[in-house]
Amino acid sequence: AQSVTQPDIHITVSEGASLELRCNYSYGATPYLFWYVQSPGQGLQLLLKYFSGDTLVQGIKGFEAEFKRSQSSFNLRKPSVHWSDAAEYFCAVGGSDYKLSFGAGTTVTVRA
Amino acid sequence: NAGVTQTPKFRILKIGQSMTLQCAQDMNHNYMYWYRQDPGMGLKLIYYSVGAGITDKGEVPNGYNVSRSTTEDFPLRLELAAPSQTSVYFCASSFNRPSNSPLHFGNGTRLTVT
Questions:
Q1: Read out DSSP for B45-76?
Q2: Fewer C-beta neighbours within 10 Å, C or N terminus of chain B?
Q3: pLDDT tens per residue, range A19-31
Q4: Closest residue in B to A94 (Cα–Cα)
Q5: In terms of CA atoms, which chain A residue is nearest residue B95?
């Protein structure tokens, strides 16, 4: 069965500082990996995705993520956080079927 | 372009009541999904549909029903509401399978069953 673990429930970061959100997955084959962001009161929006090829993927809003097969990880990073990055972030894993499995989410608070 | 529209935004139900959560998309997507989001649990797939007339169960289908008579609409039905169904419900759609195209989410319906 596929699953996703996001070890950090809540992270607080200063504006301008770097951010890294952890994601570990379990999947029996080559996974498709995603990061989604949810702003308060909104639905989720896709930040980036990994299917194959280059293990460092770039997304929207200045985010990037690195796929490490040996560690079953897909961590999300941003070099310099803006106040508008305060949101909840979800990692998801899927295969070639119709189902995505989401992690429990990490809430990011940005302090001035 | 409205995207994915969910109604209502909020609803309070008494135990045993029934209701339908509405979901409509105007992007001509074939694939549609219903998720529920509970604190600390992430999103769980309730039902999904790969086209009009075709639906299938997700991870947590018990207590829910769906139909897909048109490409645009994918309503979710709760027949006998229970407190365990208190949650935030999200409808989503995609052009192709999630592995090939992103999910577009509605803004959610917050349901409380008391």
A1: EEEEEEETTEEEE-S--TTEEE--SSSSB--E
A2: N
A3: 999 999 998 887 8
A4: B99
A5: A98
